[in-house]
User: Which sequence fits this backbone?
């Protein structure tokens, strides 16, 4: 049940995790802070197109687990739902009232009401109704902020149909490029970690076979792939971007779906499953990271190409904050289960090892709203940017003298495997000052208003995500 590296003390705080492929994986009443609508099941790491589960799976599981979990969705199925938030909650403070249409395939469910559509088909997803009483004890009657965070997450999170669409495109690319003799295409990033929203780009890693890895230059490989892909009917606008990690950026033809493809960035696969393990160990992590990324994007501090923070850096900053609370929401999984995240693990063993991480039982039962406000306050007033390094690997802030090469860096966020600075894009003082100002201003506004609309346009974001194609 538990990896060998876990001590008796550590094990006492972890719970046996349900089957990760179960569509109701996230619904456990003890620590859920929101209505988790059957999280999109991730495909097995053999990279075959993911099939929809049999229709009877959900019904049979709910019947068996009804007494244990008391899911809010059960109440909804019995007719206790409403197209409007409960009284006392305001999801959107907007002059234009939005009517929510129920979707038989619940948001984030393992199957969609429309099933899987061809990548080039036009999909117009229904916005799911927000059920009355969709929150449990973490969102009380007067907890408007937590309710807003939960609802924004439910409206924007990646759907199972989105996942299948990306995976099908990856599979077709693998076949059309005829690169099986040289390497394999892997889906990575937020798509696989469970931290994606509907409009998120898809990250691909082209891993060369061992016999080719030392002989091939990544730029040369990407240039060859660019020539091949430019003649394909599946994709368009294929561009080679010569960044620190060079990538091919391209678009699925006839849609808004963007892909970033790198070569041999194995650490990207490792950190994908590290983040996935954190998301599965503590259910509050996914909505927090999604909402914080939306906030950072709106505040124009979520673009490494413009000298600000990447989404990966933001995710690590969220985990670091949750690790360093007086009562941690989550520990360092690398410290507790080193075997599962051994940097020497073969690539095909990475997802299998990550599946061994059980759910963590945190003594910190803070609501989503409390944690969001605390995150902003931590980086606005508490964290010492000049003296500390953010380390999710160590589960704490490390003094900068542990990283002598980073002494002149403005923001230091340690990559958990290679121990490089993933915030190196922030190299201008003006950008750094602007990032800090956004944390401080947003913390003050949210503390005063306790309304998510005070720091980002909730309705506009929901409209964009639910109309995304």
Assistant:
């Amino acid at each position: 049940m538990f990896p060998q590296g876990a001590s008796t003390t550590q094990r006492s705080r972890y719970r046996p995790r349900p089957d990760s492929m179960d569509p109701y994986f996230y619904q456990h009443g003890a620590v859920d802070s929101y209505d988790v609508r059957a999280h999109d099941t991730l495909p097995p790491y053999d990279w075959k197109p993911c099939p929809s589960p049999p229709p009877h799976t959900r019904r049979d599981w709910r019947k068996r687990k009804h007494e244990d979990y008391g899911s809010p969705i059960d109440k909804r199925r019995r007719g206790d739902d409403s197209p409007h938030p409960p009284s006392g909650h305001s999801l959107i403070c907007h002059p234009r009232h939005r009517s929510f249409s129920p979707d038989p395939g619940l948001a984030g469910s393992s199957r969609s009401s429309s099933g899987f559509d061809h990548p080039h088909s036009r999909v117009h997803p229904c916005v799911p109704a927000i059920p009355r009483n969709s929150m449990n004890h973490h969102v009380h009657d007067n907890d408007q902020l937590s309710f807003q965070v939960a609802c924004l997450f439910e409206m924007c999170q990646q759907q199972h149909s989105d996942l299948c669409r990306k995976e099908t495109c990856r599979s077709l690319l693998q076949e059309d490029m005829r690169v099986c003799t040289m390497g394999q295409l892997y889906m990575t990033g937020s798509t696989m970690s469970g931290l994606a929203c509907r409009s998120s780009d898809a990250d691909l890693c082209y891993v060369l076979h061992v016999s080719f890895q030392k002989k091939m230059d990544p730029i040369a490989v990407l240039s060859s792939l660019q020539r091949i892909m430019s003649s394909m009917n599946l994709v368009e606008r294929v561009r080679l971007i010569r960044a620190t990690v060079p990538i091919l950026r391209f678009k699925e033809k006839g849609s808004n779906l963007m892909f970033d493809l790198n070569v041999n960035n194995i650490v990207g696969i490792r950190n994908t499953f590290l983040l996935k393990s954190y998301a599965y160990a503590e259910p509050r992590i996914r909505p927090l990271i999604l909402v914080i990324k939306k906030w950072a994007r709106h505040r124009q501090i979520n673009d490494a190409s413009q000298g600000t923070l990447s989404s990966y850096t933001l995710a690590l900053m969220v985990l670091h904050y949750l690790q360093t609370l007086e009562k941690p929401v989550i520990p360092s999984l690398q410290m507790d289960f080193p075997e599962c995240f051994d940097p020497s693990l073969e690539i095909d063993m990475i997802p299998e090892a990550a599946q061994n991480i059980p759910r963590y039982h945190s003594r910190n039962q803070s609501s989503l709203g409390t944690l969001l406000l605390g995150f902003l306050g931590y980086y606005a007033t508490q964290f010492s940017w000049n003296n500390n390094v953010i380390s999710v690997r160590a589960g704490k802030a490390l003094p900068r003298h542990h990283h002598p090469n980073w002494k002149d860096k403005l923001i230091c966020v340690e990559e958990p495997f290679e121990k490089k600075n993933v915030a190196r894009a922030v190299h201008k003082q003006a950008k750094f000052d602007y990032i800090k100002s956004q944390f401080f201003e947003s913390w003050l506004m949210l503390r005063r208003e306790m309304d998510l609309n005070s720091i980002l346009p909730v309705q506009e974001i929901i409209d964009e995500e639910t109309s995304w194609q």
Observations:
- The chain has 16 helices and nine strands.
- The radius of gyration is 22 Å.
